Automatic annotation (TrEMBL):
InterPro entries: Aminotrans_V_dom, PyrdxlP-dep_Trfase, PyrdxlP-dep_Trfase_major, PyrdxlP-dep_Trfase_small. Keywords: Pyridoxal phosphate. SUPFAM superfamilies: PLP-dependent transferases (SSF53383). Gene3D superfamilies: Aspartate Aminotransferase, domain 1, Type I PLP-dependent aspartate aminotransferase-like (Major domain). Residues 52-352 form the Aminotransferase class V domain. It holds the Pfam family Aminotran_5. This is Aminotransferase class V domain-containing protein.
Amino acid sequence: MKNLRKEFPVLSQYTYLNTASSGLLYDSLLDKRQEHDLDFLIGGSIFRNSQQEFLNGVRTTIANFFDASANNTILTPNFSLAFNTLLNGLEKDKKVLLLDQDYPSINFSVQSKGFEVCFAKVDASLEQNIEKAIQKNKPDIFAFSLVQYINGIAIDLEFVTALKTKYPDILFVADATQFCGTKNFNFKDSQIDILGCSGYKWLLGGYGNGFMLFKDSVLDHLTPVSYKKTALEVDYDPSYTNLQARFECGHLDTYNFGSLKNSLDFLSKVGIKTIEHTIQELTSFAKEEFTKLNLLEHSVLQRQKHSSIFNLNTNEKVFNHLNERNIVTSLRGTGVRISLHFYNTIEDLEVLLKNL
């Protein structure tokens, strides 16, 4: 892993502990991006002639990486855009279960569109809170992040599987932006109906790309009756009601989606299981050391498993102190958030601990 650090110029200048805010650009990806624009420069519209074939290759790469169906994979500039498109296709009489501290791109989007909402509390008993909320409120949809962006609490995927088996009629929609790229994940075997992700964080894809994965037949639940009726009455081609037509309106940027494809290939070469193991080692060390310094909230301390995101119980003064010493973190919630990826090392954490 230390040799791979040479791919990331930022790491020679900073102790970078901020992937939850933005993943890093790396040398070989920069080469590919420059090659893309050179092809466009000298080809013009000829370059665009192969766009559809190229984008199909991007979908296939995403599907293979997460063991999903390429036909049920859609490309989107970011999770938020696709999620709002999804919500626009749902009848507003649906009741949606949310997590009370979840990312505003989920919670605000749902609440602002007039859905009836209910909440489960994010704490040490997250899974039990979710099931109690389902029993009490009987929601039609459960929309949630797999990893909480503020404190890094991660929902138990085995619990999600058991919950969906118990409540098969609830539509499970997951934001995996703070998850994908940190663990080996099989979408087909999961009980999640729809999984979305922006590619600029743990997948290292840069900005302007993301995807959504759908289980078979889910589209039928997302397309309004009026949409289907119009397509039939005006005699539009059936493709106007498929996943791509519903979610991929207009042209797609081969530069950005090419970056995502290249990064998935890059992560595959490193090995997602190797990445997962490295992150687990860093996370275990970090949690142990942060616990000694009394820097973690009670909810995190009480949970056996945790993501690689931590919110440290400190303040803006400490954040500025770290920043002055080229230690890159984020202010989130009531503390300083740090996040660890495979290009981080124990030495990075030791630099942080020394300054804390």
